[in-house]
Amino acid sequence: MDAAAKKKVWGRDTLAGDPHARGDKARRVRAMFASIAGSYDLNNRLHAFGMDQRWRRVAVGMAAVTPGERVVDVACGTGDLAIALARTLPAAAADGGPSVIGVDFTFAMLPLAEGKSSGDAAAAAYAAGDALRLPLPDACCEAVTIAFGLRNVADPSAAVAEFARVLKPGGRLVVLEFVEPRNPLIRWGNAAYTRGLMPLTATALSGDRSGAYRYLPKSVATFLGTAGVAALYERHGFGGHRSRAMNLGTVDCHAGTLGR
Fold first, then answer.
1. Is 73 labelled a binding residue?
2. Record-annotated residues binding S-adenosyl-L-methionine (predicted)?
3. What is the pLDDT of residues 118-164, one digit of tens each?
4. What is the pTM of this model?
């Protein structure tokens, strides 16, 4: 980890308002993920009580990819969803290229993803790239997935438009994202955990100084929510939208079809 990645990225001042409204959000998010890359998987498993893998299996099911198709996993991080997708597909798509392509704009995540994929018979391929400018041609895949990443891009609407660009007509978009639960009692308990206990334990475990685990609950509380993400699907030509709430309403999995 370089010296810049060790510095505070999200503090009291930068989290006092809406972090999604900051003009420097993209730079801060990249630095934050570079800071926590090494402990990212351990913290995910521990603080999601292992349920994060189940959520990804639901996303794989909703993507409904079949042999010969290609899926692009955006904001792939350390590769968990890309690997889960790759395990359901042959190594090559119908055109001979990789069946799964993982893209992330935090370079420190990609070697971790590649290392985890190396033992899989159907390994995903990985590339550095921004969700707003994917390094891919038009209409190159049948599905796009993004797990807990739409909330972190600088412009979620522009990102969904970019996903539509790389999808073939009839392609599927699957968005897995945290959400504020509707039930008041669950919302209270979730806030106590995500804003109180989790930042302390996650920061101690990772040695993080970037403020990543203070940013996480704030970014969820100020994001679009279930209806807002559904509206993005409609705005960019995705029909048949459906969503599945999980984990007492704290996680949503959205799916829709381009041009349907």
1. no
2. 78, 104, 130-131
3. 765 567 899 999 999 999 999 999 999 999 999 999 999 999 999 99
4. 0.94
CA distances to 38, 52, 53, 189 from 248, in Å: 29, 13, 16, 11
CB 260 within 8 A of CB 170: yes
Rounded Cα distance, 213 and 20, in Å? 16
Q: Tell whether 147 is in a known binding site.
A: no
Per-residue DSSP letter, 120: -
Alpha helices, DSSP H only, in 80-211? 80-86, 109-117, 156-166, 184-192, 198-206
13 marked as binding residue: no
Domains of the chain (ranges plus CATH)?
A: 23-258 (3.40.50.150)
Residue 198 burial (CB < 10 Å; 0-12/13-18/19+)? buried
- 131 in a known ligand binding site: yes
